[in-house]
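Students often ask why inverse folding is considered easier than folding. One informal answer: many sequences map to the same fold, so there is more than one right answer. In these notes we will look at a single instance of the problem. The structure comes first.
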């Protein structure tokens, strides 16, 4: 499937879409890395409008009361499990801290490719991509 990500991704908060069940809305939940260290919280979800699937977590870290937060995207492929209050990913805090920063005003089509490559996942628009079955509730 030859497509670009930017033309199909939208923040859930900017859409008129909702999560099917309120308990599946993970916005606001704390995000923990592979060793159990808190990284930040899920600030929003980037969804693929064409397929109505979540593609990235928008994670915010640092700051006070939302001011000065650093935002970055983590592919849903990194999610290992979700519980009632937390999202656990398979990446380290250091790896996430070094990820390309998210700025919706400056992104271009190559940004999403770079994010997938940085984390070591194949992009969802590539041949043979299999959706990870988000969300993983345990």
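Output (designed amino acids):
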């Amino acid at each position: 499937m030859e497509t670009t990500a930017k033309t199909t991704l939208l923040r859930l908060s900017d859409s008129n879409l909702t999560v099917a069940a309120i308990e599946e809305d993970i916005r606001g939940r704390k995000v923990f890395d592979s060793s159990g260290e808190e990284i930040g919280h899920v600030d929003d979800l980037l969804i693929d409008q064409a397929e109505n699937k979540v593609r990235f977590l928008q994670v915010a870290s640092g700051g006070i009361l939302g001011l000065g937060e650093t935002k970055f995207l983590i592919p849903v492929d990194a999610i290992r499990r979700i519980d009632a209050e937390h999202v656990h990913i398979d990446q380290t805090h250091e790896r996430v801290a070094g990820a390309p920063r998210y700025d919706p005003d400056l992104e271009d089509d190559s940004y999403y490719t770079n994010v997938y490559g940085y984390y070591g996942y194949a992009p969802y628009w590539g041949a043979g991509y299999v959706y990870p079955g988000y969300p993983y509730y345990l």
